[in-house]
Write a structure and sequence with these properties.
This protein is α/β, with parallel strands linked by helices and 660 residues long. It has 23 helices and 23 strands.
C-alpha cells in the first residue's frame, strides 16, 4: 500500500490546548490548498486524562484517518509513552528533552494493561522504563528523534514581551510544537501565522506572542535540523473557490439553520451537545430574502427584515427535550432535538406520541459506544436497530444515516422535508466519528437546498364543522392537511390514545384499523416517492470480485481503501445504505444478486445492517468485518481486511482492533 499523504499527531493532557493546536495545524494546511481530515479522541472527563488529535493532509482528496503516524508532536511525557511506537520507520518525534527522565510508573493516567505492554517491550529491548528508553526503542525502529528546548525558547520570546511567568509562557507549548512540526517539513511559515491569527482573532495580544513563538520555532528548527527530515509539505495552487474546513457537529447545525429550523432542544450529552452549543453561539441568523433562491427563509426574511433567530433550549432532561420539540411541531415551527444513545432511550415514549399524532419532529442521533453509559466519548454504530424500533407499538418513522460531512449537511435539510411531508418523526443518525471529525470539503451549494413543508395549512381553516376540523381525515395519500395550533377557523384534539379523524378518543376496532393503515401507509408512500439517489450510494465497477455493504462513517475509510485495493488489482464495489427506513429493498436485492462475495462492514458487534438486509431481501451476508473497541475504522484496516478476504485467509467474522 503506497500512501501519498502525511499523518501528523499531537497529544496531551485534556484541557491543555490539544484541540487548539490541531485546529491551527489543520487550518494552516487547508489554507495552503491541501485536503485535510482530522480525528479527535478524548476521554469522558473534563481535564486530566489523555487526549490526542490526528490530522492527515494530502494534495489529493482524503476522506479518513490512517493508523500510521508520520510525525508525532509532543510537549509532555504521556503522549510519548502512548504513541511513540505508532510512528513509522523514517517518521519523526518532536519532544522536550526535559522529559527524558520521566518514568512510565510516574504517569498515573496510563492504564495498567498499557503500562504492562510497554514495560514488556522495553524490558525485551534492555531499555529503561522512561522517556529516554521509549524514544531509544523508537529510534531503533528507524524513527527520527528531534529534541527541542521548549522552555528556553519560550523564555526568549517572553523576554521580548516583558513576560517572565513560566506558567503563562507554557500555555504556548502546543503552538511551538505545531510550528516546529511545520518547520521540519519546510511548510510556508506565513500560512501558519495566518492560521494562528484566525484561531485567536479575538485576542490580539495572544496572537502577537504566538506569532513570535512560531518565528522562534522556525528559526531554531532551520538552524538545528535543516534538511534532516526527508518529507516535505508544500502548499498547492488552488483554482476557483477554496474548500470549507468544518467539523461534523457544526455542519449539522449550519444545515439546521438553512433548513428553517427555529427551535432546537437538548439536554447536555456527549457528543451531541457540541451541535446545540454551536447553535447557541450563532442564534442570530442572517436571512436571504432573494426570491430567486428557493429556500425557506424568503418569506421569513421579508417579515423579519433580514434577521432571524433560532431558539435553543436546554431542557431539564431528554423527555422534556423531545416533547418540547414536538410542541414546536404542533405550532408549525420546524423543530428538532439532538441527543446520543442514553438520551434517545428516554425519548422513546415521546416518539410514539409524535407518531400517534402525526407530528413532524427531527431527532439527530449522535451514535456512541454503549450499552448504558458505555463509552461516552468513543465511537460505535450500535444504535441502528434501536432507531428503527424505539417506542412501543407500531408507528411510522424515517431513519436516515449520513456517511460524511457533505451528506450530513444535505441530509439534515432532507430530514426536515421528510418529517413535514410525511408528518412523522425522522431520526437522523450522525455517528460520533463524523461528529468529531474535521475535514476540508467543497463549499455547500445552498441553491441545491429545496424546502418541502408538505400539507401545512398557511391560512384560516374554511372546512370546520361546528368549530372542529378533521385533522386526521383519510386522504388518498394517507397524509392529512396540517394546521398549526391556533390556526383561525378550527379546533382539533391531540391525545396519546387512539382517536377518530377529529382527534377524539375511541377504541372502535374499525376506526383502529383505519387509523393504523393511514399512519403506517406513509412508509409505503415514502418508499415510492423518495428518489433512490437520496437513499443509497453505489461506488466502483458494476461487476467486482467483492461487494462491500455498509452505512455511516465507514464510507470515507472504505473509499480510500478501495483506491489502494485497485492498485493491487483487487476489484471492489461498495453499496452505502443511507435511508434505512423505508429500506431500499428491491435496489439492494438487485445489486447483491450480482455480487460474488458480499462483505458487511460495520462498527458494531453483530453487523446490524447485514441482519436488516437479510430480513428485507433474504440475501445472507456471510462475511463480516466489524469493530467495536470505540475507535473508528481506518482506511488501512479496511484495506488489510479486504486483502485477506480476497486471498481467502479471513475468518467469517473479522474483528478489527486498531486504535489507542
Amino acid at each position: 500500500m503506497k500512501r501519498d499523504d502525511f499523518s501528523w499527531m499531537i497529544g496531551g493532557v485534556q484541557g491543555s490546548g490539544v484541540d487548539t493546536s490541531a485546529n491551527v495545524f489543520a487550518k494552516a494546511a487547508a489554507a495552503g490548498g491541501l485536503s485535510v481530515f482530522g480525528k479527535r479522541e478524548y476521554y469522558s472527563n473534563i481535564k486530566g486524562e489523555h487526549s490526542y488529535f490526528q490530522v492527515r493532509v494530502s494534495k489529493d482528496t482524503i476522506r479518513s484517518h490512517v493508523d500510521t503516524v508520520d510525525m508525532l508532536a509532543t510537549f509532555e511525557e504521556e503522549t510519548i509513552f502512548r504513541h511513540a511506537l505508532e510512528v513509522r520507520a523514517e517518521g519523526a518525534i518532536i519532544y522536550d528533552p526535559d522529559q527524558d527522565t520521566k518514568r512510565l510508573d510516574q504517569v498515573p493516567t496510563i492504564e495498567a494493561d498499557v503500562r504492562a505492554t510497554l514495560n514488556g517491550e522495553l524490558a525485551k529491548a534492555g531499555l529503561s522504563p522512561d522517556v529516554r528508553g521509549i524514544l531509544e526503542l523508537a529510534r531503533r525502529r528507524g524513527v527520527h528523534i528531534y529534541p527541542i528546548p521548549y522552555n528556553e525558547l519560550l523564555k526568549e520570546v517572553g523576554a521580548r514581551f516583558g513576560e517572565t511567568s513560566l506558567s503563562t509562557l507554557q500555555r504556548m507549548l502546543n503552538v511551538m510544537a505545531v510550528a516546529a512540526s511545520f518547520a521540519l517539513v519546510s511548510y510556508d511559515e506565513n500560512l501558519v501565522k495566518e492560521a494562528l491569527k484566525k484561531q485567536f482573532r479575538a485576542k490580539p495580544k495572544v496572537v502577537e506572542m504566538n506569532v513570535a513563538v512560531v518565528a522562534a520555532a522556525y528559526e531554531y528548527m532551520n538552524q538545528k535540523y535543516a534538511g534532516s527530515f526527508a518529507y516535505k509539505l508544500a502548499p498547492v495552487k488552488v483554482s476557483g473557490e477554496t474548500n470549507l474546513f468544518v467539523r461534523g457537529n457544526s455542519t449539522v447545525a449550519l444545515a439546521k439553520q438553512l433548513a428553517g429550523c427555529r427551535l432546537q432542544t437538548y439536554y447536555p450529552i456527549t457528543p451531541a451537545s457540541d451541535e446545540s452549543e454551536f447553535l447557541e453561539g450563532h442564534a442570530e441568523i442572517e436571512l436571504d430574502g432573494s426570491a430567486a433562491m428557493e429556500n425557506p427563509q424568503v418569506g421569513e426574511a421579508v417579515a423579519l427584515k433580514g434577521k432571524g433567530n433560532i431558539a435553543v433550549v436546554q431542557s431539564e432532561d431528554e423527555i422534556a427535550a423531545v416533547t418540547m420539540a414536538i410542541g414546536g411541531g404542533f405550532a408549525g415551527v420546524r423543530s428538532s432535538t439532538s441527543t446520543s444513545g442514553p438520551g434517545f432511550s428516554l425519548m422513546a415514549e415521546g416518539l410514539g406520541y409524535a407518531g400517534m399524532n402525526e407530528v413532524p419532529v427531527v431527532v439527530t442521533l449522535y451514535s456512541r459506544g454503549g450499552p448504558s453509559t458505555g463509552l461516552p466519548t468513543r465511537h460505535e454504530q450500535g444504535d441502528l436497530r434501536f432507531a428503527l424500533h424505539a417506542g412501543h407499538g407500531e408507528f411510522p418513522r424515517l431513519v436516515l444515516a449520513s456517511g460524511d460531512l457533505t451528506e450530513a449537511f444535505y441530509d439534515t435539510v432532507r430530514a426536515f422535508n421528510y418529517s413535514e411531508r410525511y408528518q412523522t418523526p425522522v431520526i437522523h443518525i450522525v455517528d460520533k466519528a463524523l461528529a468529531n471529525s474535521d475535514a476540508t470539503i467543497p463549499k455547500f451549494d445552498v441553491n441545491k437546498v429545496k424546502i418541502d413543508r408538505g400539507l401545512l395549512v398557511k391560512g384560516p381553516v374554511t372546512d370546520a364543522v361546528n368549530g372542529e376540523i378533521r385533522r386526521f381525515q383519510m386522504t388518498p395519500s394517507g397524509v392529512s392537511p396540517r394546521p398549526p395550533l391556533g390556526t383561525k377557523g378550527g379546533v382539533y384534539w391531540n391525545t396519546g390514545d387512539e382517536h377518530d379523524p377529529l382527534g377524539h378518543i375511541t377504541e372502535d376496532p374499525t376506526n383502529r384499523d383505519m387509523m393504523m393503515d393511514k399512519r403506517m401507509g406513509k412508509i409505503d408512500l415514502a418508499d415510492k416517492e423518495i428518489p433512490m439517489d437520496e437513499r443509497v450510494n453505489f461506488f466502483g465497477p458494476a461487476a467486482a470480485d467483492i461487494t462491500l455493504l455498509s452505512w455511516g462513517s465507514t464510507k470515507g475509510a472504505i473509499l480510500d481503501a478501495m483506491e489502494w485495493l485497485k492498485e493491487d488489482g483487487i476489484l471492489v464495489n461498495f453499496v452505502q445504505v443511507r435511508l434505512i427506513n423505508p429500506f431500499p429493498t428491491e435496489y439492494i436485492k438487485g445489486v447483491l444478486a450480482k455480487s460474488k462475495t458480499i462483505v458487511g462492514v460495520e462498527m458494531n458487534y453483530s453487523g446490524q445492517l447485514t441482519g436488516i438486509v437479510r430480513e428485507r431481501t433474504c440475501v445472507p451476508v456471510e462475511q463480516l468485518v466489524v469493530k467495536y473497541n470505540g475507535r473508528p475504522m481506518s482506511s488501512e484496516e479496511i484495506y488489510s481486511a479486504v486483502k485477506l478476504i480476497s486471498q481467502g485467509k479471513a475468518p467469517k467474522r473479522l474483528v478489527l482492533k486498531n486504535g489507542a
